[in-house]
Amino acid sequence: MNSLTPLVVVLVLAIAFGVWYTRSRGEFRKKKTVNGPKLDAAVIGVELGSRVTMVQFSSAFCSPCRATKALLEDMVKTMPDVRYAHIDAESNLELVRKIDIRSTPTTLFLNSDGVEVGRAMGTPKRSQVLDAVNAIR
Amino acid sequence: MAVINQTSSTTKAKLIDARGPRFSAAITTLVLAAALVTQSAALIALQLVVFAIGAFAGPAKTPYAFLYKKFVKPKLKGEVPTEDARPPQFAQSVGLVFAIVALAGSLLSIPALFTVAVGFALAAAFLNAVFNFCLGCEIYLIAVRIFKK
């Protein structure tokens, strides 16, 4: 049976998914209600920033995690009220389930109380991180 | 709460040329597309061997990686972008599973199984080649969450 139909179906679905995937990676998604659990230094491994803390979850089979880590580490150098924490998802499954991390890299943006304001999946652009951080008071 | 482990994902990285796996994904896309259209078990068997080499020996050891190093890399200029070998190796393992299922479908005369398995493998390879889709990023943690206590 030679048919082009399966090929066309797969390619159309893959292109649609790929366009959505490319657009949605790195996008900061703000939570409608900020009511999640309070995370603190004992949970994320570093002291909270005085205004914002970015918490990145990474895994072994993830290339963009390295780029995200390099970007965020670089950005916090010039932002004294923002701190950065990096967490290996696989060895912290209890936390991953509790705050529902599904893919890596996922970066949480915490306010000064340690409560999640929003998150970004995939590698964000520098401007996306700046906008997200600046929106948190 | 468990002790925070911050570094285990970045300590033992073996770095390879990041463009190699993407070139390999493009060749894989063409082979799988041809296999899907012709329903060819032989093409899937060939791709299965390539996936197996990539999954067990590493993505830089496959015949496609050899083609990349021999014919494509010498023509590329600029700094070599590197990446951890483990994400593409994981993707090759997932590809291997789909190829095994597809070949089983062919041997057991279940054409629908063949078509669906090749279709998923093709979609993943195509997304990797065209959109730089990271399969390990999207499915590994979900799998760990399901299977690991």
From TrEMBL, chain A:
Keyword Membrane on entry: yes
PROSITE patterns, per database record: THIOREDOXIN_2
Residues passing through the membrane, by range: 6-22
The Thioredoxin domain, residue ranges: 8-137
Keyword entries, A-Z: Membrane, Transmembrane, Transmembrane helix
The keyword GTP-binding is assigned to this record: no
Gene3D superfamilies assigned: Glutaredoxin (3.40.30.10)
Signal peptide: none
Protein name: Unannotated protein
Originating organism: freshwater metagenome
TrEMBL record, chain B:
TM segment ranges: 21-38, 44-67, 94-114, 120-143
Annotated Pfam families: DUF4395 (PF14340)
Every DUF4395 domain range: 16-145
Keywords: Membrane, Transmembrane, Transmembrane helix
Protein name, as recorded: Unannotated protein
Organism encoding this protein: freshwater metagenome
